[in-house]
Design goal:
Order of helices and strands: EHEEEEHEHEHEHEHH
Strand content: 15-25%
Strand order of the largest sheet: 2-3-4-1-7-8-9
Low-confidence stretches: none
Mean pLDDT: 96
Number of strands: 9
Radius of gyration: 20 Å
Structural class: alpha/beta
C-alpha cells in the first residue's frame, strides 16, 4: 500500500478526488492502492527548555544561554488521535508520498511526523504549487525521491532551532533584565519579529 501524507484535510480531499481514493475511513481516504491521510499543519514542535534541563524551567539570567546538545521534537497535545492514524498507516506502508505543501515548512511538517512515527518506508515527494486536477496529475507523474529534499529539510530544521535559540534566550534575558529594573511585563524577542518591527 502507498500512503500519501498531506499537510491538511482539504489538500488530502483534493488529492483523493484526482487519484481515486474516494472511500472514507478513520482519518484517511482509501482507494486504488492508496491511503491518503493528513496532518493538521505543524503537528510536532521542539521540546520546551525544561525537557533538556530542569534548571531551565526557571526564568533566570543564571541559566542563560540555554543551548541543548541536540534538539528534540514532541507531538502537540491536541493531535494525538490523527497522529495515531498516520503512525499506523506509515507502519503498514510499502512506500510513502510526502504531499505536504511545496516549501520549507511543508517539508518540516512531514519529516517530524515521519520521524516521530518511527517510519522506515521509502519516501517520494509530490511537489505541486497548485491543486488543480491537471497540476496534481502532472506532479504525480513526476514523483521524486524524498532524499532529493534533504537540504530543504535541513534548512527548515535550522530555521526552527534558530527561532528557539533566539526567541527563548533573548526573551528570557530581556524580561529578566527588565524585572531587575522594576518592570513586570514579558518582553518578547524574536529572530524575525524583532528586526521586522524595528523597520
Amino acid at each position: 500500500m502507498r500512503v500519501v501524507v498531506a499537510e491538511k484535510p482539504s489538500v488530502a480531499r483534493d488529492l483523493a478526488r484526482v487519484l481515486g481514493a474516494t472511500r472514507r475511513a478513520e482519518g484517511h481516504l482509501r482507494g486504488d492502492g492508496l491511503a491518503i491521510t493528513w496532518c493538521f499543519g505543524h503537528m510536532a514542535e521542539l521540546q520546551e527548555p525544561s525537557h533538556y534541563d530542569p534548571a531551565w524551567k526557571a526564568w533566570s539570567l543564571a541559566t542563560l544561554p540555554m543551548v541543548p546538545e541536540r534538539f528534540e521534537v514532541k507531538l502537540r497535545k491536541d493531535v494525538g488521535d490523527q497522529f495515531a492514524v498516520i503512525s499506523r498507516l506509515l507502519g503498514e506502508a510499502d512506500d510513502v508520498v510526502n504531499a505536504c505543501d511545496a516549501g520549507r515548512e511543508g517539508e518540516l511538517i512531514f519529516r517530524w511526523v515521519y520521524e516521530l512515527a518511527g517510519a522506515t518506508a521509502p519516501v517520494q515527494r509530490l511537489w505541486v504549487s497548485s491543486l488543480t486536477d491537471q497540476a496534481i496529475r502532472a506532479g504525480w507523474s513526476k514523483l521524486r525521491p524524498g532524499q532529493d529534499y534533504d537540504r530543504l529539510a535541513d534548512a527548515a530544521r535550522s530555521r526552527s532551532e534558530a527561532d528557539w535559540l533566539v526567541g527563548l534566550n533573548a526573551t528570557r534575558a530581556l524580561t529578566c533584565r527588565g524585572r531587575d529594573e522594576g518592570g513586570g511585563q514579558l518582553l518578547s524577542v524574536g529572530r524575525v519579529q524583532t528586526p521586522t518591527l524595528a523597520m
